[in-house]
Design brief:
- The chain is an all-alpha fold and 209 residues long.
- It has seven helices and no strands.
Length: 209
């Protein structure tokens, strides 16, 4: 991967531009894999929805790691609730803000695939939401969630967001970042397994409480 990126940097300035937009990083950090859970730096200090999404992804894995390392049931329960909240809000904000924009530039195929994976995550989250740390099977459900989540994040970061970054302007990414953060303040905070896996309006794929 490093050799491929070095070749791309040497032979095409446009590739460098795309990567800088996606990561918000200087050219010196372009060799970091897209699937890493780095905290992207924004060279021009502008908000960037792609950096925000990667930051959220890193937080999900951090919460699960803290859960695994904790020995206190109260703390473990709090971490589970936080993971449910953060992943639900993140997913619905993506569906409301990012996916419609991706559809405009990339068609419906990527969106529909991502929504199908979101539906799987919602199904598992709904099961976890009905459990407590004392429930039999909780750890297995969390493991199932993290496996599905890791697969989804890898596809999103390695493929979908890379392509999207090459199709939009930097100012558009900043505008989307603002909409993304505002959406996270108003979407439902708990999963709905019965939500459709395709949007009814083209924007939102969940019902409200």
């Amino acid at each position: 991967l490093k050799n491929c990126l070095l070749t791309a940097v040497d032979t095409s300035r446009s590739i460098v531009t795309i990567l800088r937009v996606f990561t918000g990083s200087s050219t010196s950090s372009l060799l970091t894999p897209f699937c890493s859970t780095m905290q992207p730096s924004i060279a021009d200090d502008k908000p960037n929805i792609l950096a925000d999404i990667k930051r959220d992804h890193a937080q999900f894995f951090s919460l699960h790691r803290q859960y695994q390392e904790s020995g206190a049931d109260e703390e473990k329960q709090t971490l589970v609730w936080q993971l449910i909240h953060d992943l639900t809000v993140h997913s619905l904000a993506e569906e409301e803000v990012l996916y419609p924009e991706m559809t405009k530039h990339m068609g419906t195929k990527c969106r529909d695939h991502a929504l199908s994976e979101h539906k799987t995550l919602k199904d598992i989250l709904s099961d976890i939401d009905a459990m407590t740390v004392s429930s039999p099977g909780l750890n297995d459900k969390l493991k199932m969630l993290m496996v599905a989540l890791e697969h989804h994040i890898k596809e999103e970061e390695d493929e979908m967001l890379v392509e999207f970054a090459g199709l939009v302007q930097r100012d558009d990414l900043a505008d989307l970042a603002d909409k993304f953060q505002k959406s996270k303040l108003r979407v439902p905070t708990r999963p709905h397994a019965w939500a459709p896996d395709k949007p009814r309006t083209g924007d939102v794929v969940t019902n409200t409480l």
